[in-house]
Design brief:
By secondary structure, the protein is mainly beta. It is 7% helix and 59% strand. It has one helix and nine strands, in the order H-E-E-E-E-E-E-E-E-E. Strands 1, 2, 3, 4, 5, 6 and 7 form a seven-stranded mixed sheet that branches.
Length: 181
């Protein structure tokens, strides 16, 4: 009986177990450009996973200040699908397991008036093949909105025109006249 237990116990050590990656740590960042009033720029949201892999992220986004949402591009770095859209302020992206920085989505915003605006991405959960995590993470990107630069209209400089006329005696007389356009 003792031999059976030892044999069973030794078999347990010989059978490889399932190896799980460590619990990933995730940071959220948002990278935005600047924009002139009336024009558009993009803000891209990223998740940076370290210490393990992730294959899905979910949460919400908020556009505030002197900018407005134009569209949302839900293509992401997971190579999978997305439940993100410009119609709703929530998102879910998923696909292959990744570690390191991964694109979540890109938002296009329009500058309404001079000043600034923000795009805040709040993450409520992320997961991997082995586990899901409920979290409260956020990242914020700032968009600087400026008025378009207008160039003053400059007129062509005027140069005095020189005319030459000859008198009857054959001597030259020079006169200046201003040319205008």
């Amino acid at each position: 009986m003792r031999k059976r237990w030892l044999m069973l116990l030794s078999l347990l050590f010989l059978v490889p177990g399932v190896v799980h990656a460590g619990n990933p740590s995730v940071n959220i960042s948002v990278s935005c450009g600047s924009v002139e009033t009336g024009s558009t720029t993009t803000c891209t949201a990223y998740a940076n996973a370290s210490g393990g892999t992730i294959n899905n992220v979910s949460g919400s986004y908020l556009v505030t200040g002197n900018i407005s949402l134009v569209s949302l591009d839900s293509s992401n770095g997971f190579g999978g699908g997305s439940d993100a859209s410009a119609s709703y302020s929530s998102f879910g992206v998923y696909g292959n397991e990744v570690t390191g920085s991964v694109k979540l989505f890109t938002i296009t915003v329009r500058g309404n008036t001079a000043g600034s605006g923000t795009v805040k991405v709040s993450v409520t959960g992320y997961g991997s093949d082995s586990d899901d995590y409920s979290v409260s993470l956020s990242g914020t990107g700032k968009v600087q909105v400026t008025d378009p630069v207008t160039q003053p209209i400059t007129e062509a400089p005027t140069t005095p025109a020189t005319t030459r006329r000859t008198t009857q005696a054959g001597s030259n007389v020079t006169a200046n006249a201003n040319a205008t356009t």
